[in-house]
Design goal:
The protein is of the alpha+beta class. The protein has 2 domains: 190 residues, Jelly Rolls, CATH 2.60.120; 156 residues, Methane Monooxygenase Hydroxylase, Chain G, domain 1. Helices cover 45% and strands 23% of the residues. The protein has a 17-stranded mixed β-sheet that branches. Strand 2 and strand 3 form a beta hairpin. The longest helix has 48 residues. It is globular and about 75 Å long. The protein starts with 20 loop residues before the first helix and ends in a 6-residue tail after the last helix.
Length: 387
């Protein structure tokens, strides 16, 4: 899994520095065990890689399979997986830096994924689909995503916890559940026996539903993007305000240090650490939002391609509305990408400022530790016990 280098003592209070992302991206997280073409690999930088047995998987790698294609791969700390035909996933797509090196995020955009996880996993395993986020405590389950963003979960061992907006449902062994985009999960059902499973047929059925309900589906997707856009805009505005405050306190710290005002410097360091902890808390929620919106962003691109390929199967009277809604979705995608880049730019600026004062922070903590030890010894020598 991702192994981050701790740059300074400040990392106890905030996530790893942006520059460490280059190190994270070069850390192998698994390998390909077998595959069948058509199957392609695209790196986080957009480079196409020739598939081969033993290929070492990097954070941000995207796998895409075509008709009859599949790939079996292993993630070192998680378990083994099989991505079925006509499927697309992204593995551990970096946001800025992974503050939790034991967490695995997989974005299943479309298709079929069989997961067989280790029982002794060290950290959280989170699976994102266009409809839902899944926390996994089990060891074997299937996830199937159709072109209309409907998701099926089938649990064969252990249990999973799925989460929609504000609602969580536990799916135990031997059960399955369906989640339609922007709707509440269905009731639990008995899992289809393995010999009778034909997810290709189910996905084909959902394609017909998608084409028949395109105006309503695209309208729901557009509304969903609007909510995500609003959430990212709020994060960006809050981050800007906090960045301004941190910059002011950093300048104060430099002034207090030059004037040998140690008490004022100590209070300022506490303020900076409190602020950076607040940024870390907000970033955790932001990372989840980005994972959610990124998987849906990739899904809508596939939806548009599928719509164009099957435009003759869509009612002509619906075409103007569908075209207009897809244009709205495209515009919101672009706005989200723009705000995402701005937000990450602000974070990078904060990290750079923190690097400038890391020696001052370390020096203060060292002095503070010495002071506490002296205070404790003085109290003990005087026969007093601290309450």
């Amino acid at each position: 899994m991702l192994k981050m280098i701790i740059i300074s003592a400040l990392c106890l209070f905030m996530f790893a520095h942006y520059n460490n992302l280059a190190i994270a991206q070069s850390t192998f997280i698994g390998e390909i065990e077998d595959f069948r073409r058509p199957f392609s690999i695209t790196t986080i930088k957009g480079k196409k890689v020739e598939p081969k047995l033993g290929y070492m998987i990097l954070p941000g790698d995207q796998f895409v399979t075509g008709k009859l294609g599949w790939v079996k791969y292993e993630l070192a700390d998680e378990g083994s997986f099989k991505l079925g035909q006509n499927s697309q996933i992204t593995i551990n797509e970096p946001i800025v830096a992974e503050e939790d090196s034991k967490r695995t995020d997989i974005q299943l955009v479309i298709g079929e994924l069989l997961s067989k996880l280790k029982k002794n996993r060290k950290g959280p395993f989170v699976l994102w689909t266009p409809s839902i986020v899944t926390g996994v405590r089990g060891t074997e389950f299937q996830t199937i995503v159709a072109i209309d963003a409907t998701t099926l979960f089938v649990v064969d061992d252990g249990e999973i916890e799925i989460e929609t907006e504000g609602q969580k449902v536990t799916v135990p062994k031997g059960k399955m559940i369906k989640v339609v985009y922007e709707e509440e999960p269905s009731s639990l059902e008995n899992a289809v026996p393995k010999p009778e499973r034909n997810w290709g047929q189910w996905r084909k059925k959902q394609q017909g539903i998608f084409l028949n309900r395109l105006p309503m589906i695209t309208d729901k997707i557009s509304a969903g993007f609007s909510r995500q856009l609003d959430g990212i805009r709020v994060f960006y505005d809050d981050l800007n305000r906090q960045a301004t405050s941190i910059n002011e306190e950093i300048e104060n710290l430099k002034t207090f240090k030059s004037e040998n005002r140690s008490n004022d410097a100590a209070r300022t360091v506490n303020k900076i650490e409190f602020m950076t902890q607040g940024i870390k808390d907000k970033f955790n929620a932001f990372r989840n939002r980005l994972n959610r919106v990124r998987v849906m962003r990739k899904m809508t691109l596939r939806m548009e391609d599928f719509f164009i390929e099957n435009i003759d199967k869509v009612a002509k009277m619906d075409l103007p509305v569908i075209h207009a809604t897809f244009l709205q979705i495209s515009d919101k995608r672009s706005q989200i990408v723009g705000l995402e880049k701005k937000s990450l730019g602000v974070l990078r600026d904060i990290y750079s400022k923190m690097d400038e004062i890391k020696d001052d922070l370390n020096e203060f903590r060292s002095q503070k530790g010495i002071f506490k030890r002296k205070e404790f010894k003085a109290g003990k020598k005087g026969g007093r016990r601290n309450p």
